């Protein structure tokens, strides 16, 4: 894997104003994304996971500028150049769309029902002014074949396809401009389990064939287990743990990660142990708790956790495995495989 950094995010924030009254006066802000710092290396797949409402989708949309960030830098390096996505104007964004694309969560809402599949997949090429109509349709047919559909289906409309097939169409559309970096926003969460595995395999094969880099957003750690090289765990607008995929599953360092691993369903009923759901709910992002954001739901919390916010940092002897927990070097947290013990 190349060590070159393709994306660097510095202090990314996205706040949504809370307005009240006849004059729509701003009385506060929802801190959906509250200071993200991370790098993604070329050729890897990074999983961004967390509960619904933690801000992961907002983070992905802010990176690609579907939402304008409130603060921070998004440094994208598709080649020798470096661009700050947060500062690009309309023309600059149009050019950079050829290098960075987005796969939407809902395959039913993300495709225009009035356009044929061929037009949907070739539309990005038309917008960028690339090729003739014949060349664009030829490219669309080739991409449909790549994702497991047939070029003969280009004249059909989205309603004639299943959910998994529609998501494949969305994937083909995202690859029409031959991008280097793709943000996958929960691309399999709306699909049933058997179809999820098929789409994940398609994404994995395409990563190899097109030399892609992925940011894979998901709320389920079991989904990103086999596709991700590294995993970022997000809670209440902040990243609380960063680690290689295997290491995170075997030895988590943040109590929230441990709770997410315990919530994964156990497939073997002979183990005689039920999954443990995380109690409570995510605090109000417009009024986050003092100290560690997770202390209101953490069984290991102390007075230090309630008063002082921990810093995301590497553990002793392993700086690449980072966690924002005061006690990451003292706690012995249970990994994924330990759930079946007893």
3D architecture notes:
The structure is a single chain. It is built from 10 helices and 12 strands. With 342 residues, it is an alpha/beta fold. It has one domain: P-loop containing nucleotide triphosphate hydrolases (Rossmann fold), CATH 3.40.50. The strands form 2 sheets. Strands 6-7-8-3-9-10-12-11 form an 8-stranded mixed sheet. Helix 3 packs across helix 4 (133-146) and helix 4 (133-146) crosses helix 5 (163-174). The longest helix is centred in the middle third of the chain and has 18 residues, at 193-210. 39% of the residues are buried. The model has no long low-confidence stretch (mean pLDDT 90).
How many domains, as an integer?
1
Main β-sheet: number of strands, strand sense, barrel status? 8 strands, mixed
Strand content: 15-25%
3D shape: globular
Q: Tell me the total number of β-strands.
A: 12
Secondary-structure element string: EEEHEEHEHHHEHEHEEHHHEE
What is the CATH superfamily?
P-loop containing nucleotide triphosphate hydrolases
Q: Please give the CATH class.
A: Alpha Beta
Radius of gyration: 21 Å
Measured as a percent range, the helix fraction is 25-40%
Based on the structure given, which CATH architecture is correct? 3-Layer(aba) Sandwich
CATH topology-level name:
Rossmann fold
Low-confidence runs: none
Strand line-up of the largest beta sheet: 6-7-8-3-9-10-12-11
Distance between the termini: 39 Å
Name the quaternary structure: single chain
Report the structural category. alpha/beta
- Rounded average pLDDT: 90
Number of helices: 10
